[in-house]
Amino acid sequence: MSHKTLFLQQSYIDCTNQYTALLEAPNLPLWDYVILTASNEEQAASYRTQIQYRLEHHMIPESTHYAVLPDPDGKRVGSGGATLNVLRYVHENAGSFENQRILVIHSGGDSKRVPQYSACGKLFSPVPRVLPNGKRSTLFDEFMISMSGVAARMNAGMLVCSGDVLLLFNPLQIDFYGKGAAALSIKEPAEIGKNHGVYRVDSEGNVGGFLHKKTVEQLQKLGASDDQGNVDIDTGAVIFNSEMLQALYQLVDTKEKFAAYVNESTRLSFYADFLYPLASDSTLEQYYKETPEGDFTPELEQCRTELWSVLHPYQMKLIRMSPAAFIHFGTTKELRELMTERMDEFYYLGWTSNINTNREEADFAASNSYVSPNAEIGKGSYLEDCMIRNKSQIGEECVISGVTLDGQTIPAHTVLHGLKQQNGKFVVRMYGVSDNPKEALLFGKTLPMPLWEAAIYPVCDSMEEAVHQTLEAWREGFPIREDAISLKDSFNQADLSALLPWQEKVSDKVELEEILEAIDRKENLTRLVEQMRDGISERVKGELLKEAQRLSETELDQFSRKIRIYYVLSCFDEKYMDSCFATISSGILAGAVKGLCYDADAKMGKDQVTVNLPVRVNWGGGWSDTPPYCMEHGGTVLNAAVMLDGNCPIEVVVKKVDEPVIVLASADSGAEQTFTDISRLQDSSNPYDPFALHKAALIACGVIPYKEPVSVQEITKNLGSGLYLSTQVINIPRGSGLGTSSILAGACVKALYEMLGKEVTDEELYDRVLCMEQIMSTGGGWQDQVGGLAPGIKMVSSEPAIRQRITCVPCKISEKTRKELDERFCLIYSGQRRLARNLLRDVVGRYVGGIEDAVDVLYEIQQTAVLMRFELEKGNIDGFAELLNQHWELSKKLDAGCTNTCIDMIFHSVEDLIDGKMICGAGGGGFLQVVLKKGVTQEDVRKRLREVFQDSGVDVWSCSLA
Q1: Quick check: 728 and 667 in contact, CB under 8 A?
Q2: Which fold has domain 815-961?
Q3: pTM to 2 decimals?
C-alpha cells in the first residue's frame, strides 16, 4: 500500500470516527445549516424524504438545520441563482450570516449522462460501502462524513460543493479564517488535469485564473503545472466567508432585486459568474465573454456588471490538499467500471462490489439487490435496487437499476432502469451503456433527436409489464410512438416518493433471503439478529411469519426451517418461542400418531398383568435423543438398566373390573379415579393431571380412541370387561434423574399389550411409548424408556427423521468386565430433589438458535458415547471412567444448571475414591453416579459421605446392572 493510500485510508477512518462521535453528541453540530439545491419541487421532495429517513434513523446530527431548496417556480435558474436562493433562505431564518457555518451541496442537475440517477439525484446515488450503522452509503452520506471536519477549520461562512464529486482528503489540511474566498484543490499530474478544470496560482498564492480542459502542453505554457508536472485541480469545493455572503446578499435583499438575478433568462452559474471575478488576473471584458449556463442575454450582462463590482475586490485563496483524490460519478460507463473493474482501487476505503445482496460473487457487482440463485449474471455487470428472480439472464457489462426481472434475458452492454410515474404507471428505460443521452444515438441507431428527448419507452400498468414492453420495443428497433415517453419526460413525471420505499422493499427482500439462508445453514441466529443493528422491519417479520405458516411440520427440511423462523421472530417477541416449541411438539406428534387407531376388536385376555421394570442410568450421548436434534441429526446414546436393592422399582398393574368403567390409579401418590366419560379420558395433555400418563397409554395402545367420540360403555363392552390401570414407582424419590416417568410409560404399554394378548416387537414397543410421550406433550427424548425396557448395557440410536425409529444394540461385554463394572459402579443420592427448571426449553432453544456451544457439545457427547462403548467392549473400565468425566464437563457446558454447590461438594468429598463421575438425567439434584477406584468399595464411599453430610440424606444406594 502506497503512502498516499495509507494517508487517505486513515483520513477516511478519522472522518468516519469523528462523524460517528458527533452523532452521539447531537447538540454539538459542526454545520449550522446543510442545504441541498434541487431542480424542481418533486426532486426536492425526494431529497427531503431522504433526509427525514436519516434523521429518523439517527444517521445525521439532529440539531443541524436541513433544507432542500428547488429552483424558484420550477424554472432553471442556474447554480449561481440557486446559491443566491440559499443566501435568502439563511438570512430569512438566521437574520444574518455571522456565526453561521453553512454547507451547500448543488444537486439540482438532470444527470443526463447517468439517467438512472435523474430522478433520485446523483447526490443520493449509492456508494459501495456500508456505513457504521449497517446502511448502504450514498454520495450524500459521504459528503456529510468527509465535510464534517471542514466546519471546524473555517470561520463563519459557506462551503459550496458539487453533488457529483466525492472528495478524499484530510480536513486538517484546510485552514481558512481570512476574508474573501478559498478554493479547495488537489494535486494531480497534468495528464489527469487536462480533462478537468485547473487553477492557475498568482505570485501571492491566490487563484490567478481558471483553465478548462487544456492540453498538457498548454497547462505547462500557461504556468499551471509545477516542477513535478502536477496541477491544481478544481474540486468544485469553495468557501465564502460571511462578509462575502453579506455582500452578495445585498444584491438580492428585496423581492425585486432577487427576481432580477434569480430567473430563467439570467441563469447565473456559480462557477462562471461568482468565481471568475475572484481570480486576480481576470478582466471585466473577458468576464462578459465567459460561457454562461444558459444564453448570453442583456439581463445576464447587467448582473455580471454588478457582480464584478461586488466580488472582484475580494481574493480567492488556494488551499492545496495533498495527498488527496476525487472520484467523479460521471457517465454510466464510468459508473459501471467504477463498481466492477475499478473496485480494487478503493478497497482501502472499505468499498466492496457487493452491498446488501444475497449473492456475493466476483464476476458482477450488486448493491441492495436480490438475485435468484438460478439467475445468470454476466461478467462485469452492475445491479442496484433490483429484484432478479427465477432464471433471469443478464448479459455482460450491463447496468440494471430499479427493476424486477422474472426470467427475461437482457442483452450485453445494456442499461435497464425502472421508474414509477406520478400517475401510478411504470416506465423501464433501456439504452446502451456507452450511449450518451445528449446525442442522437441508441444502440448504434441514429435517432431524429437526442436520446434524452426521444419518446420511445412504453408506459405500462406494472413494472413487470414495462420490462416486457420495453424489451419488445428494443426488438422492434425502438420506434418513436405517440403513446411512449422519453428519458426527459419520464424523469420529470417520476414519482420520486416511491424511490425510497422501493429501495427499502428490495432491502427487506435481501434481508429476508439472508435470514432464510442462515436458517437453512443452521447458523448462529442470535448473532445474526445482533448484527442487524436496527433489527428487522415489520415487513420482514411479516414475510417470515407467512413463510413459517406455509411450511409443513411433517417434512423434515420444512420443519427445520419453520422452527428456526419462529426462533428468529422470538428475538423480537418472546411469544414466538412458544410457537417454536409448539411446532416441535406438533411435528413429533404428527409423526407419532400416524397410523394410530382405536382397536375395537381388542379383548382383555387375562384377569391381571403386572409388569416390573428397572430404572436406567445414562452414560453417554444424553440430550442427543431430544427433538429436534435427533430429528435433524439422529441420536446416539449409551445407557444401562439398573436394579435398586435387587428390585425393579417401576411397576404397572392392569386387571379386569366387573363394571363398564375404566379405573386409573397412581399407587405411589394414592390417587384413583373412575371414568365413564370418554372425553375426560381423551384429555391427556395436562401436565398436572395425575392420570395423563395412563390416558396416553390407553390411546397409544388403541384401547380408547384418540379423538373419536366412542362411549366408555361401548369400549368396555368390546373389551369384555372394565379395565383397571395402576402405576407405581417404588421407593424412589421424585426428580431422581433415573428416567422413572418414561420407563413407567414403557411399562404401561408393555402391560396393556400383554393384557390384550398382543405380541409386539421391541421397535413397535418403543414407537408406542414415543407416541405416548408426544400425546402428553412432555417433549423429551427416547433414551429413558428404552433404557428401562431393554435389559443391560446398550447403544441406542436413531436416524434423522421426523418420526424416530429406534435401534437398540446390546454391548458385547465380557463377564469379567461386567463383574468389575458392577463392583465399581455406584449410585449416590444427592439428598435433594431435582427442581423443576425450564431446562428443555433452554437447551433446545440454544440448539435451534445455532448457538455454537450447544451444537458442538451435542455432537461431542455422541462421540463420547461411541468411545465409551469401545472401552467397555475392550474391558477398559478406567478408560470408560475417564470418558465419563469428559461427558460431565460437556454436560456442564450444555447446561450450567446441571450442577450446584451441593453436587460439587459431594463429588469433591469423594474425589480421592473415584475415577469417574457424572449426574443422572438432567442433574441439578436427584442421583449422581461414580466409578470407584479399584479396591474402593461402596461402603468406603458411604462412610465418607456420612462423615461429611451426616444425616442430610446424601447416601449411597445399592444398585446392580440389570
Answers
A1: yes
A2: Alpha-Beta Plaits (3.30.70)
A3: 0.81
